[in-house]
Amino acid sequence: MDSPEVRYQSRIFRVVRESYLDHQGERHERDVILHPGAVTILPLLDDGRVCLIRNFRVATGETLIELPAGTLNVGEDPALAAIRELEEETGFRCGKLERLCAFYLSPGILSERMHLYVARELTPGPMALEAGEQIETHIVSWEEALELVREGKIQDAKTMVGLMFYDRFRRGAP
Fold first, then answer.
1. Distance (Å, rounded) from C-alpha 70 to C-alpha 41?
2. 94 and 27 in one domain?
3. pLDDT tens-digit profile of 35-93?
């Protein structure tokens, strides 16, 4: 690959035109979004309920049901970002944080890698929303969270991955 041509630079991401050779040696160009990565957190209360959020998203014009999440600062440790975002968006502080997995949200166009954590031993506190954020907590039973996915009421990919990954591979595991 050659050095990418910057097409747009924002506070958080860059849109670049990448030039690359395919397996037959033919040159191609593709515009991609370079993103520093993000975290999402599955907050589990001691009684087994999960803390989701209702988050107004400008890009969709809708309030979505999601897991708390946020963008990494350049060079930031994802675990520290997860603790920060959990506190900011829910007010909860966690006594225990465990990394579950990492995944790409839309690798055909976006380099954003999402780091998924489960947070336990939660204690409530004040939220610290950023200017313009419209977020409220939405605490539900585990079964209700899965039902929201099944019914299509949760449409956010990171939330679907987080709930389904945990349910399939970690829930009830020793």
1. 9
2. no
3. 999 999 999 999 999 999 999 999 999 999 999 999 999 899 999 999 999 999 999 99
pTM, entire model: 0.92
Q: Give the number of domains in the chain.
A: 2
Task: Give pairs for 128-134: CB < 8 Å, separation 24+.
Answer: 128/87, 128/88, 128/91, 129/88, 129/89, 130/88, 133/55, 133/89, 134/55, 134/56, 134/63
Domain holding 166: CATH number? 3.90.79.10
d(CA 40, CA 72): 10
- Per-residue CA distances from 36 to 58, 78, 117, 118, 173 (Å): 20, 11, 17, 21, 32
Same domain for 163 and 101 = yes
Tens-place pLDDT, residues 108-121: 999 999 999 999 99
Expressed as residue numbers, the domain containing 99 is 38-170
Query: Are 138 and 54 within 8 A, CB to CB?
Result: yes
Q: In the prediction, which pLDDT does 52 show?
A: 98
